[in-house]
Structure formats: C-alpha cells, structure tokens
C-alpha cells in the first residue's frame, strides 16, 4: 500500500513507465472478455471439429463416441443431407431477396420521405423494430394460425380458385420462406435505412439534371449509395435464415418436405444423439456462411467491422 | 383518371409504407387479441372475450416458472455481458495494443455465426467436459452471444466522447479513479444502458442456443416451443403481450425524452 502511494509520485515523471502502465490497463480491460470468448466461442468450435471426426464406440450404447479421424462422417452427412443443405441456402437466399424487395422501399420512405417529419420518422422506426418485442416463436405461430386452412387468407384463395381444393399454405416451402422473410425484415430494413438516411439528395437531383430517367438515376445513384446498407442487411438476413429451424419446423410453418439444415442438426444432436453427424453438419454450415462473411471482412477492413 | 394516377404516383410510397407497417403488425395484433380469448385448452378458435387469462396468468401449468427463469437468466447474462463488453469497448477505442485486428475479428465472428452452430458447439463442449446442462450453462451461453453486441453499442458511445472533458478533470487534479467515476462513467452511461437493454432483449427471446444447452431447464421461449405441439395456452400470449407493451412504452418514452433534450439544446445554441 505504502509502495503504491509512493510509486505513484515517482512514475508520474518519466514517460516510459506511464506507457507501460497504460498497456497494463488495456490488458486488464481486455483479458476477461477475450478469455470468455476463447472459452465459450473458440473452444466450442474446436469441440465441434473434434466431435465431427468421432467414431461410435464398438458395442457401446447409443450416443457413445470416441476420438477418431473419420473423414467419412463428412461425406456421409453431405451425401445424406444434400437436399436439406441445398434447401436451406435456397430458402435463405429467396427470403433475403424478398426481404430486400419489401424493405428497400420502406427504408427509403423512412430515411428520405420522412426526413422533414422527425417525430413520424421516430414512430416509423419504432414500428419496424416492434416485431422484435414480441416473442419470435409466438409471432411465427400467429402466422401459422393466420395462414391455416380455417383462416380467411386460405378461404379467400380457395374462393378465388387461386388454390386448388385440398391444397394448404402452411407446411409448404412458400410458408417457410414467408416466415423467414417476415422475421428478418427488420434486419434488412434498418441497415438500408442507415445508409439512405445520410443520402445527399443533391446527387439524385444531379442525375435528373443530366437528363437521366428516374429509373436509371435510381439504379445508378441511389442504389450504389445505399450499397453498404444492402450488403449488411443481406448478411444479417441470410446468416440467421440459413441456420434457422423454427420456421421450417413442423409445429410452426414447415411440413414434412421443408426440413432445413438447422432441423437436421437439432434432430441429430438432441434426439438421435448422433453428435458427430450434428457437428459435421454445423461445420459445413459454418464454412458455407464464412465465404460471404470473409468477402465482407476483406472488403470493409477490420477497423469498420464493429 | 390522369388526376388519379398523378395522385397515386405522388403518394404511392406513403400507401405502400402504411400497408407494410400494417403487415408487420398483424402477428403482434393477433397475439395480443388472442390473449383475451376465452379459450379452454387450445387457443386457436375465438370463443369470446375474457380478462381471466390476464388476472390468473399463473394458472396455466409452468408459464410463470418459465417466465421467471427467463428473467433470472436475462438479468444474469446482461450483468456479465455488459461488464465484460464495456471493458473491451473502452480498451478498443482508448488503447493501441498488439493483436488489435484479431481482437476485432474475434468480437465480430460470434455475430456472423449461425445460432445453431453456436448452440451445437457449446453443447459439444459441455458434453466433452461432462458439464450438466441447466441454468448455469444457459447463462454462460447467453453471456457469450451478448458480449459482441455490447461492445458494438458501447464502442460508439466511447468514440463520440470528447477527450477534452476528461483532460479538464485531470487538470483539476482528479485522480484517474475520480475522473473515471465522475466524468467517463456518467458520460458512457446512456450507451451502457442501451447495451444492457439490448442484451436483455436478446437473451429473453433466444430459443435456438438455449434449446441446445438447457437440458430440462425451461425458459419462456422453450416453454412456447414445447407447448406448440399440443397448443399454446392463452396465458403465454398474456406474458408476451405484457412484455411487448412494456418494451414499446420504454422505447417511446426514451425517444420522446431524447427529442425534448435535442430541442432544449437547440434553444440554448
């Protein structure tokens, strides 16, 4: 204690120890959180790698595995679950495009049209994030009821003969993609809004002054300026959508033919206790998602990541 | 006809946006309306208005326990993640240190990883380590995915902080601890509060990671998932509706007070 009080007066004069003390402060601030992420983010990824190569214990019970190097685990899961993997990416990509088409005009409306009305703008933003405040599972179940055979939507489709009798909406690929789109619309709309909110309208006027049609001004001025928001929004929609298993679950919007990679991972891990298969599939999903993510990281640079 | 099409062209975006907002609110309205349904077992068909679900929320087996569990997990994970994340955010803005880029990447990756992968990874780790799944593993998992969001939120606040204010504190012979407690911390507080609220919201609504790491421990989303197969009781709608109303009131009040503060500042300058 006495040394501490004494030391403080001494170290204040030379600059060198002061810098060292500052870096000790940085270490103290960083270390707990970094260790936490090493233990509960990096180590789990490593556990997945180890588990994915494991082999069943000979004459062992279900769910008993030992360390091994079975590459076949990967070829087996990719062979068995290829339809689920492809379906996941197709559903996620479709939902991303649908959310972009839905969210872009909305983001433009909030970011540009409502600029002159700050209170309305704040209200509109609150409405966009409002779905976050009601349980994810309950709002998906609400759509299940609304799109069910007894609901007015399906009755209307039957009445207009747009849907053949005996056909359903829930349990189809359409309802799963619909649910994914609905649930991730805020993730798409908010980043685009952030880009468009800063859009300098003089650039758009310049397009018109240079005799560009509104359509070509839109695609050659507005869209490129909103590109950072579109890219963030697409990643924030695609990544969670590709791994989601709520919407595609049979108790929610899915059916027998809509299972995605997340459903297969859940079933293998929690029901079948086939941990190596679940781990291998998780890593396949992780690697597939890392491709667009690394492109994003390389283009934006690590300083602008957070 | 031309007058109509001109009017439509002018207001098309307004019309579209109003319809889009209605669309976004449809399942919320459905959930709230059905919290007043006089349902006996399954809450699918409308059978009349009642307040019983609201006055006797805990009558339905397990709903209130699950809700209480979610509150405990949410508070614990929020405290842990906010503390760890705030420290990292201050270090990222204020200090130069080796492996800075790797640190940023390590903080970014959990946000870019699908939740199933995070959930299955933690479950594989707990399985290998022989850790029993329960409330502790759920809190550990939630803290992990909240840290990065805390860093992002608080970092923005630290970056916008005027260093001159802290310098003034030091010029007036404030010790580093005093400068932090009287100047830095109060100025960071709005960012820290926002980060804590975000963490709580993320933890409270998480299902995927929880499902992999909870064992027989039931949170509110897990209760809903399990009940979905046999029919959700209206009491679950009551809890979700109440949480929704509280959250919306919170957001609106904070936005109005921010607007009032902006107006006051504008009048001063």
Shape of chain B: globular
* Percentage of residues in DSSP E strands of chain B: under 5%
Name the quaternary structure: heterodimer
Number of helical segments of chain A? 11
Terminal CA distance of chain A = 40 Å
Major sheet size, sense and barrel closure of chain B:
none
How many strand units of chain B? Answer: 0
Specify the CATH architecture of the largest domain in chain B. Orthogonal Bundle
Largest sheet of chain A: 2 strands, antiparallel
Q: Treating each run of at least 4 consecutive H or I residues as one helix, how many helices of chain B?
A: 11
CATH topology of the largest domain in chain A: MetI-like fold
CATH H-level superfamily title of the largest domain in chain B: MetI-like
Class by SSE composition of chain A: mainly alpha
User: Roughly how much helix do the residues of chain A carry, as a percent range?
Assistant: over 70%
Mean pLDDT of chain A: 88
**Spatial order of strands in the largest sheet of chain A:** 1-2
State mean pLDDT of chain B (0 to 100 scale): 91
Describe the protein's topology.
The complex is a heterodimer of chains A (306) and B (269).
Chain A (H helix, E strand, L loop, with lengths): L1 H10 L3 H38 L2 E2 L8 E2 L5 H40 L6 H12 L6 H11 L5 H8 L13 H25 L3 H9 L4 H30 L17 H11 L3 H26 L6
Antiparallel strand pairs in A: 1-2
Helix pairs in contact in A: 2-11, 3-7, 3-9, 3-11, 7-9, 8-9, 9-11, 10-11
Chain B lengths: L1 H32 L18 H4 L7 H32 L5 H13 L2 H15 L5 H25 L3 H9 L4 H30 L2 H6 L6 H9 L5 H35 L1
Description:
The complex is a heterodimer of chains A (306) and B (269). Chain A is mainly α and 306 residues long. Chain A has helices spanning 2-11, 15-52, 72-111, 118-129, 136-146, 152-159, 173-197, 201-209, 214-243, 261-271, 275-300; strands at 55-56, 65-66. Chain A has a two-stranded antiparallel sheet with strand order 1-2. In chain A, α3 crosses α7 and α8 (201-209) packs across α9. Chain A is globular and about 75 Å long. Chain B is an all-alpha fold. In chain B, 78% of the residues lie in helices and 0% in strands. In chain B, α7 packs antiparallel against α8 (176-205). Chain B starts with a helix and ends with a helix. The mean pLDDT of chain B is 91.
């Amino acid at each position: 204690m006495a040394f501490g009080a004494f030391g403080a007066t001494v170290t204040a004069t030379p600059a060198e120890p002061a810098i060292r003390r500052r870096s000790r402060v940085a270490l103290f601030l960083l270390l707990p959180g970094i260790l936490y992420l090493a233990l509960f983010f990096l180590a789990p990824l490593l556990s997945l790698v180890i588990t994915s190569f494991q082999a069943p214990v000979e004459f062992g019970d279900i769910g008993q595995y030992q360390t091994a190097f079975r590459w076949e685990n990967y070829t087996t899961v990719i062979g068995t679950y290829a339809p689920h993997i492809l379906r996941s990416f197709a559903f996620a990509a479709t939902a991303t495009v649908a959310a972009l088409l839905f969210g872009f005009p909305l983001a433009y409306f909030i970011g540009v049209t409502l600029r002159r009305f700050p209170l309305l703008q704040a209200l509109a933003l609150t409405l966009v994030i409002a779905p976050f405040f009601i349980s994810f599972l309950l709002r998906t179940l609400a759509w299940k009821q609304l799109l069910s055979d007894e609901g007015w939507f399906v009755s209307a489709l039957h009445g207009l003969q747009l849907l053949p009798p005996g056909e359903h909406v829930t349990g189809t690929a359409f309802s799963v993609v619909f649910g994914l789109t609905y649930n991730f619309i805020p993730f798409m709309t908010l980043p685009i809004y952030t880009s468009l909110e800063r859009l300098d309208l003089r650039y758009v006027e310049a397009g018109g002054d240079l005799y560009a049609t509104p359509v070509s001004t839109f695609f050659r001025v507005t869209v490129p300026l909103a590109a950072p928001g579109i890219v963030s929004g697409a990643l924030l929609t695609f990544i969670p959508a590709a791994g989601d298993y709520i919407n595609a679950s049979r108790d929610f919007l899915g059916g027998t033919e809509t299972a995605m990679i997340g459903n297969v991972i859940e079933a293998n891990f929690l029901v079948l206790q086939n941990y190596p298969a679940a781990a291998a599939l998780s890593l396949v999903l992780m690697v597939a998602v890392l491709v667009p993510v690394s492109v994003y990281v390389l283009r934006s640079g690590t300083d602008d990541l957070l | 006809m031309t007058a109509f099409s001109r009017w439509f062209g002018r207001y098309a975006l307004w019309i579209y946006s109003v319809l889009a907002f209605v669309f976004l609110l449809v399942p919320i309205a459905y959930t709230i309306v059905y919290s007043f349904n006089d349902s006996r077992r399954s809450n699918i068909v409308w059978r009349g208005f009642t307040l019983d679900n609201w006055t006797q929320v805990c009558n339905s087996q397990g709903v209130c326990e699950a809700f209480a569990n979610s509150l405990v997990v949410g508070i614990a994970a929020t405290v842990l993640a906010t503390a760890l994340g705030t420290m990292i955010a201050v270090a990222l803005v204020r200090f130069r240190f080796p492996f800075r880029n790797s640190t940023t990447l390590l903080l970014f990756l959990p946000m870019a990883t699908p939740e199933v992968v995070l959930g299955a990874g933690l479950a594989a780790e707990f399985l290998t380590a022989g850790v029993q799944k329960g409330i502790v593993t759920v809190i550990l998992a939630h803290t992990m995915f909240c840290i990065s969001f805390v860093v992002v939120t608080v970092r923005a606040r630290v970056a916008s902080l005027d260093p001159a204010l802290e310098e003034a504190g030091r010029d007036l012979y404030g010790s580093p601890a005093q400068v932090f407690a009287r100047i830095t911390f109060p100025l960071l507080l709005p960012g820290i509060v926002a980060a804590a609220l975000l963490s709580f919201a993320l933890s409270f609504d998480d299902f995927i990671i929880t499902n992999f790491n909870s064992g027989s421990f039931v949170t509110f989303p897990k209760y809903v998932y399990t009940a979905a197969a046999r029919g959700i009781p209206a009491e679950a709608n009551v809890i979700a509706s109440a949480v929704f109303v509280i959250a919306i009131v919170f957001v609106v009040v904070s936005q109005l007070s921010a607007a009032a503060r902006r107006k006051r500042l504008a009048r001063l300058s």
